[in-house]
Amino acid sequence: MPQSSSPTPGQDFIRQIVSRDVASGLHAGRVLTRFPPEPNGYLHIGHAEAICLDFSVAEEFGGSTTLRMDDTNPTTEDPRYVDAIAEDIRWLGFEWAGEIRYASDYFEGLYRLALALVEDGNAYVDSLSEAEIRRHRGTVTAPGSPSPYRDRSVEENLDLFRRMRAGEFEDGAHVLRAKIDLASPNMKMRDPLLYRIRHAHHYRTGDEWPIYPMYDWAHGLSDAIEGITHSFCTLEFENNRELYDWGVDYTRPSAAGIEEIPGALGGGGSEPGSWDPRPRQYEFARLNLDYTVMSKRKLLTLVSEGRVDGWTDPRMPTLAGMRRLGVTPEAIRAFIDQVGIAKADKRVDIETLESAVRSDLNQRAPRVMCVLRPLRVVIENYPEGETEQLDAPYFPRDVESPPAEWPETRQIPFSDALYIERDDFSEDPPKGYRRLAPGREVRLRYAYFITCREVVKDPASQEIIELRCTYDPATRGGNAPDGRKVSGTIHWVSADQSIPIEARLYDRLFSDPDPEVGVEDFHENLNPDSLELLSESRVEPSVADSVPGTHYQFERVGYFVRDAAEAEDGRPAFNRTVTLRDTWARRQAQGATGARGGGEKRQGAESMEPPGSGERATTTAPEGVEPSKRSSRAGADARAASPELREMFARFQTEHGLTEESADLLTRDSAAAALFEGAVSGGGSPRGVANWIIHELRGSTEGGALDELPFDGGELGTLVALVEGGEISQPAAKRVLERMLEGGGDPRDIVEAEGLGRISDPSALASLVDGLLEAHPAEVDRYRAGQAGLIGFFIGQAMRQTEGRADPELLQRVLLERLGQPSP
Ligand code: ATP
Ligand code: MG
Q1: Can you list the alpha helix ranges (DSSP code H) found in 96-144?
Q2: Which of 290, 514, 623, 771 is a good FRET partner for 734, with 20 to 30 A between their CA atoms?
C-alpha cells in the first residue's frame, strides 16, 4: 500500500520530518528512536518531554524505541539510577524494545571504530595537555592553530592509541582527537577530543577501560550501532550535529564488530559512512518549568545536602517525586501534549502543569471531607451519644464516567460533636464572608443547617476552643422545607468517628519562578515554607482503608494522595498534590473585596470559597471573561461579546472536564465550539475531541476555516471514537482526517475503502509473522541464540509492512509464540 506523501496536517516539525522520511521510503519506512538517559540521577519532568517524544513518535509510525543508558562517564553513574529510570519510563506508560541497552556495551565497538578512523588518517593522538589544547583552539573570530602532534604518522598514532587503551599512560598524558578543521566556524569541529585517559572504575565495565569516549563520539555512533533512524535531542546539541554527522560519515561500520554487540540492529559496509540505517539528529526545545531547576546535577545537590527528602521527595520535579505527590502519568502526558514540541526554548508556567493535574484528578479522585485545622463544634440540640449515617456521593454529576472501583456513595457519620475548619468561622466576619459567624446559619455539607449560638474561649489565652451550635432537624440532606437560604456551605467531620491523619501541604520548592536568575546560587531561592506538616487534621472514616497511592479530593481543600510513608506515630499520611483552583487569589488580584483569612498562600485561599448551593461535590469554577494565565486575550474578547461562548467556556470545563486552555481555544469562535459539541455527541470523548480539534484541525485549516469544513462534528466524533476504541491506529486516523479534509465523507467508509482498520485477526497476523521469519533467517537465529532484543526488530518490520495497523499486543504474542524463548 502506498504511503501518503504529504505530511499530516497539524503535525509538529519532528513528526513532519518523520512523516516525510517514512513517506519517501527512507530506511524502508522503518522508524527506530532511542531515549538515552545518563544514569547519574532520577528522571525529571523535562525528561518526560523527551520520553514522550521518542516513544510516541516511534509508536505513531509503527516503529519502536530503545532505552540506552548513556553511561560513558565512569565517575557519576550508579546502577540504582538505572532501575529508577526504568521504573519511571514504565510508569509513564512506555515500553522499550528489547533489553535495556548500555553505551558501555559498545565500548569495544567504539574503540575499534576509532582505530579505523586513525588508520584512515582522520584522528591523531595529541600529547598536549587539555588546557593547552583549549588555548590552541582559537576563538570565534580567530582560527585555531595546529598542535605540534597533529601530523604524527598513522603508525605512531595507532601505536599510541593502542597503548592508551592498554593502560600504559597516566591520566592526561594523551588524548585522541579527530582531525577535522582548525578553522571551522563551528568550534566543535576544531579537532574535537574523542577519547581521554581515565583510570577510573566504571559501574559496569569495572577496570577494563582506562580510556573513555567523549559524548560526541559515543552518542552518534551508539545510535549508528543500534540502528537508530531518528535521534532527537535538545537544542543545546545543535552545534554538535555537525560532529555527529562527521562521526557517522567518517567511520567504517564493518570495523565495529557489530555481530558481537548485543542488541545492535545497525550495520553497514566497509566504506566510511555506509551505515544502514544512517541515523540523523534533530533538536527540539528543552522544557523548562517555573519554580524548579531541572538539571540532575543541581537536583543531586539538594538531595546530598539534605534540603529535600531524597530524589523522591514530593517537591522534587523528578517523576518519582511527582508520583509521590499524587500526579498521575496521564496528567504528565496530557501536560506534555499541551506544551507541544517547539523549536525555540521556552519556560512553561507551572500553572499549566497544575491545571493538567487538576483536570486529570477531577475525573478520577472521589470527593471526601477532611478538616485540616479542626475547630470543635457541639450541636446542643442533637441527642447526645447518638450517631446517624448520611449518604453522600463520591463524584459530582459532571464527572461523566467515574472510575468503576468507586461505589456511587459512601456513608458519613453525624453526631453531636463535630469538627469544622478553623478558617470557616469568623467571630467578626468581614464583608463578603459567607461562612459561619456568631448568630449565623450555614449548611454542613450533606447534613444539616446549623446556627452558631455561642463562642467558647480559653479564659487565659482567649483562643476560641469550641462553638456551641444548634441544628435544624428539618434540613437533613441540606435543604430547608421552607426554602430559606443560608450564606454558605462548609465541610466537617464527626469528632469521634473521624480519623486523625497527617496532612502534608507541599508548596513550590523555590520561591522564585526562575530560581537561577539574579542569585549566585539557586539554593538562595529555596522556599523555606515548601512543606507544612499538619498533625491535627481529621478525615471522614470512609478513607480509613485506602491503600497508598489512592487519590482524593478533600472537598474545598485540595487534591491529596495517600502516601506509603506514614507519619512518625503511625497515622496515615496524605500529600497535597495540588490545591483546588485559586479563585480567591484571583478575586483578590482583581481588586474585589472579601474576607482575608487563613494565612497560607495556596490552601487558605480555597477554603474561603463556599462550594455553592446544592448538594453537589465541588468541581473547579470556571470564569470566562477576564483572561487568566491559562486563557487568552483573544478568547476573552470573543466571549465578552457572546454570552453563548461564555456559557460554553464554563460548561466545557465543568461538564466535559476540559482544561481552561482547551476550553479557551475552543470558545474563541462559534465554529470551533459547535464542532466540539457535535463531535462529543458523535461519540468522541471530550478530551480526545478537544485534542483533535486543537492539535490536528486548527493547524491544518487557515484561521477561521473551521466553519467551512467538508464534514460535521458528528463525523469528527466518529473518527475520534474509532481511535479511542482501538479500531484504528493514530497514524491511520490522521490519514482518514486528511481524506475528510479533502472531500468529506464518513470516516468508517474511508477506513473501509483504504483498508486502514487495525489488523486484529490472529490468523492474518500469524501468516504475516511467518513471512517475516522466513525473510529474516539470520535475525531469527540471532534471536534464538539469545538476542532477545531482536523482538523489536520483528515488531518494527511487521508494523512497517502493515503501516502501523497490526494490533500491537496481539502481534507481540504471535511473535513470541512463533519465535519461542531465546536461549539464556
Ligand atoms: P540534566 O541536565 O537534567 O542532567 P541531561 O540532558 O544531562 O539532563 P540526560 O540523561 O543526558 O540528561 O538526558 C536524556 C535525554 O533527555 C536527552 O535526550 C536530553 O536531551 C533529554 N532532556 C533532558 N532534559 C530535558 C528537558 N528539560 N526537556 C526536554 N528534554 C530533556
Ligand atoms: Mg546529559
Answers
A1: 107-119, 130-136
A2: 771
pTM: 0.73
Residues with CB under 5 A from ligand 2 (ion): 38
> Where would I find the beta strands (DSSP E) of 330-380?
346-348, 367-368, 370-371, 374-379
CA-to-CA dists, residue 573 to 501, 505, 568, angstroms: 6, 11, 10
Pick from 123, 189, 119: nearest CA to 155 = 119
What is the CB neighbour count within 10 angstroms for residue 49?
Answer: 23
Q: Measured between alpha carbons, how far is 633 from 668 in angstroms, rounded to an integer?
A: 10
What is the Cα gyration radius of the chain? 31
Q: Which of 112, 198, 286, 784 is catalytic?
A: 286
Around ligand 1, the residues with Cβ closer than 6 Å are 36-38, 46-47, 49-50, 70, 233-234, 286-287, 294-297
Pinpoint the alpha helices (H) of 93-195: 107-119, 130-136, 154-166
CB 21 within 8 A of CB 230: yes
pLDDT digits (tens, 9 = 90+) for 325-335: 999 999 999 99
Ligand 1 atom at minimum distance from 237 CA: 20
Beta strands 417-421 and 346-348 are unpaired
CB 390 within 8 A of CB 412: yes
pLDDT of residue 600: 34
Cβ atoms of 62 and 317 closer than 8 Å: no
Q: Which three cell numbers mark 668?
A: 474563541
| Nearest alpha carbon, ligand 1 atom 15 | 37
247 exposed, middle or buried (CB, 10 Å; 0-12, 13-18, 19+)? buried
Q: Report which of 449, 356, 609 is spatially closest to residue 440, judged by C-alpha positions.
A: 449
Q: How far apart are CA 537 and CA 534, in angstroms?
A: 6
pLDDT digits (tens, 9 = 90+) for 54-73: 999 999 999 999 999 999 99
Reported as half-sphere exposure (CB side, CA atoms, 13 A), residue 10 has a value of 19
Using DSSP's 3-state secondary structure scheme, residue 630 falls into: coil
